[in-house]
Amino acid sequence: MPAPKDADGVRYLTGGVGQDEAAYLRKASGDYSLRLTFTGSGGQYLAGVDMHIYDSRGRQRFAAVSDGPFLFVQLPPGRYRVVASADGKEREQTLVVPAKRGVSSTMRWTPAS
């Protein structure tokens, strides 16, 4: 099963390839304040997504490549710009991580986008 990793002092967990690994990650998701899922146009899961997360001042707080369709990151409360690239296409979202419970989001890549 995937183990937590560290990128510049930020703890994260990524993976979810296969049923057992996906179930393991879903159970661990509550330990992280930002929970991202990556999907393609048909709802299929994506891996190898290049991720960058910036704080409200524009400073990069996190960068990594996902090992599977799930990426969970432990960030302090605040507003973040999430930039993800897959299949040569970039997606961007602004998300607010609350003080309690965290936030979940799905980033989708479609052929027309």
TrEMBL record:
<dbReference type="GO" id="GO:0004180">
    <property type="term" value="F:carboxypeptidase activity"/>
</dbReference>
<keyword id="KW-0645">Protease</keyword>
<protein>
    <submittedName>
        <fullName>Carboxypeptidase regulatory-like domain-containing protein</fullName>
    </submittedName>
</protein>
<keyword id="KW-0378">Hydrolase</keyword>
<dbReference type="InterPro" id="IPR013784">
    <property type="entry name" value="Carb-bd-like_fold"/>
</dbReference>
<dbReference type="GO" id="GO:0030246">
    <property type="term" value="F:carbohydrate binding"/>
</dbReference>
<keyword id="KW-0121">Carboxypeptidase</keyword>
